[in-house]
Amino acid sequence: MFAYYLRLAANSLKRNLILTGLTIATIAIGIGGSMSTYTIYYAMSGDPIPWKSSQLFVAQLDSLGPKSRSKSDEPPDLLSYRDTQALMRSHPALSQAAMYQTRLTVTPADTSKAQFAVSARATGPGFFAMFDTPFQSGRAWTAADEEARANVVVIGSKLAERLFNGVDAVGKSIILGGQDYRIIGVLKPWNPAPRFYDLGGDALAQSDNLFLPFTTAIDRQMQTIGHTNCDEVPDAGAGWQGLLSSNCVWIQYWLQLPTTAEATSYREFLGQYAADQQRSGRFNWSPMTRLRNVREWLVYKHVIPDEVRAIMALGFGFLLVCLITAIGLMLAKFSGRAADLGVRRALGASQRDLFMQCLTETALIGALGGIAGLLLTLLGAATERSIVAESLANVTRVDFVLVLITLLLAEVATVGAGIYPAWRASRIQPALQLKTQ
To answer: What's the rounded Cα separation, in Å, for the pair 248 and 237?
Structure first.
């Protein structure tokens, strides 16, 4: 029976191509407009590492006190150097990494090329194990390299291509800040969106292209380019060592806890550590700690800006307007077929038969509108990538899931909009139509 309805629907669409085209175009424009705005929201609201997001945690500890809190009931996002070192020694996790962002000057081996600055991440070997960073060649440095303050680095594929023009960079040297470092690993393109491991700046920023051991960066006194918050200005005469021994927070600390029991144990340990600091006289306020996994961290950091939500709401509001317009067009279309429907009704077709026939025609319009809307969505995403910043270009991409969402939305929305016109058409009075004819 469905095949029969489908054949009738196809014939009906051909009878009034102008009205059919307007209806399909209206649906396509509404779908294209709404889904173009949804692509960014979809990317930002996704889980950037779903296979282990429940195992990765960021630790928070209040070492500054109530006066320095941006939120009265939350500790700072970052930790002090002394606290990260104490936590890593006292309760080692499966993988853990203290890290901060710095900036270094790269001197190309080719003297004809100018120096350039690059953002670098000082971190531990646990970073690569925790976040499953994909290696193109080589490896990460080891704990022994970390202890030895080795002059080794891991670089991204983009930096490797810029410096070595497609030649494998592993084993080669790179000059950073006037110091030679040996490249021991090259990462494949890796850009989690959002950049969950560092939400201090642009959550959609590209991933780092240079990584070096945390201990090496500390020994070389590489300054952070991230946020630093202090309860009081450290003694200027103390310099770098004064910063390291102060309560200033500037270091991110992530760890991997595979089971719920381990997470509970670490949460208790973190609270006990803060209480011990209070008892020792270092803190004179009540201990405050937090331990959040990746999804909880994204929610806490409010990764999706209100502007993105507002734009998406406008996009779907536009879709609603298009659907209302489509309802009017379908009412006009079915009204123009009143005579045909009246004849079918007089020949014995039930109201249900007419309703299903019209609804099938609506579903066919939805399918065609969905395909056209998908093409508009792809065009919109391509346009966005060409005009937005590089960080946003990473999230204006349409994957297979978005294709399915687009087609399904078009079908459901169109069928939903067509229910009333189909119901009106099925209530036609055959005697009146035959008398008129």
So the answer is: 16
Q: How many residues does the chain have?
A: 437
> Token digits for 341?
């429907």
> How far, in Å, CA of 84 to CA of 99, rounded?
10
Beta bridge partners of 58: 254, 292
Mean pLDDT score of the chain, rounded to an integer? Answer: 84
Task: State the average pLDDT over residues 134-162.
Answer: 92
Helices 306-335, 338-346: axis angle to 10 degrees equals: 60
Q: Give the separation between CA 252 and CA 95, rounded to whole angstroms.
A: 14
What share of the chain in percent tops pLDDT 70? 85
Strand partners, 256: 56, 95
Nearest 5°: the CA angle 361, 364, 368 is 140
- For residue 65, give Cα distances in angstroms to 61, 244, 342: 10, 18, 79
Q: Which of 163, 255, 252, 159 is nearest to 209 (CA)?
A: 159
Q: Which two tokens stand for residue 29?
A: 């424009």
Q: Which residue has the tokens 């470092």?
A: 181
